[in-house]
Amino acid sequence: MAYTDMFSLQGKVALVTGGSYGIGFTIAAAYAKAGAAIAFNCRSQAHLEEALAVYRQQGIDAHGYICDVTDETAVRAMVADITATLGSVDILVNNAGIIKRIPMCDMEADAFRQVVDIDLVAPFIVSKAVIPAMIKKGHGKIINICSMMSEVGRETVSAYAAAKGGVKMLTRNICSEYGSANIQCNGIGPGYIATPQTAPLRQRQPDGSRHLFDRFIISKTPAGRWGETQDLEGPAVFLASAASDFVNGQILYVDGGILAYLGKQPE
Ligand code: NAP
Ligand code: GCO
Questions:
Q1: Ligand 1 midpoint to CA 99 (Å)
Q2: Model confidence over 150-204: pLDDT tens digits?
Q3: Does 253 qualify as catalytic in the annotation?
Q4: What is the spatial distance between Cα 157 and Cα 135, in angstroms, rounded to a whole number?
Q5: Domain residue ranges of the chain, discontinuous segments joined by +
Q6: Burial tier of 224 (Cβ tally within 10 Å: 0-12, 13-18, 19+)
Q7: What are the phi and psi torsion angles at 69 (to 5°)?
Q8: 17: closest CA among 112, 99, 139, 123?
Q9: Active-site choice (31, 65, 160, 178)
Q10: Domain 8-192+228-257 sits in which CATH superfamily?
Q11: Of all protein residues, whose CA lies closest to atom 12 belonging to ligand 2?
């Protein structure tokens, strides 16, 4: 197979959850540019309309849905509509996610559950909705968006870390359970990426200087910068394409080297 064909997504149908902005938008747009028909969902009508306009500006005919990924009935209806309109889903990216930064002992159990519901239970719900058709078709790709917090913790993100650690193991379990049906399920673990989710960590101080956390992350990243959503395009296309057909159950960290690095000695 020619290298260009190996990475092509021509003729494939991709569903990217939370594809209205941030990482999900960039991945869905990359898939469209690689040849796939794309569908995405989000919760807000305003986000949906803004996203559809930006996709159109880029020459992409995206199919957008209002659908909360925690609502199993709504997810099933969305998948049925995608199947009727575009064909059955060949590539699923479980990207929709939230974070709540609250010290663990101050966090209500309901808030913890909400994070786990969106970040961990939903990838189970959406995967479950697409796997039967993938089995029937004889192939499928599922990409779960994990995190640095699938491996390490930090103050205030207990629910997020618990959920993202869980998504890593859900990834390995889908690989274990459905690898024999030619379904590859892998994860991408983005490092610190500039999106609305991380905007509070990059907010400038009143004197114009960088946020302490922003400086901390740059010092912890061998690449010496925050990631951009575009840094995830190549890895996401690779894991959705035939080029990765024997890669299964892996988490690909796209973090500018953070997880490999001990950090600088304080001066
Ligand atoms: P973001 O900028 O906050 O975007 C989140 C997207 O998910 C939006 O499209 C949002 O749209 C949608 N969404 C949220 N909850 C939803 C729900 N219940 N149902 C359907 N859609 C929902 O986040 P991001 O930074 O791009 O992050 C995307 C994924 O990567 C998340 O899983 C995140 O944890 C993970 N991640 C991010 C980073 C980072 O540094 N940014 C690093 C590692 C991992 P609506 O608001 O309209 O619903
Ligand atoms: C935080 C961050 C994260 C990142 C990301 C790292 O508060 O530490 O928001 O957790 O967004 O998931 O990979």
A1: 9
A2: 999 999 999 999 999 999 999 999 999 999 999 999 999 999 999 999 999 999 9
A3: no
A4: 36
A5: 8-192+228-257
A6: exposed
A7: -65, -10
A8: 123
A9: 160
A10: NAD(P)-binding Rossmann-like Domain (3.40.50.720)
A11: 147
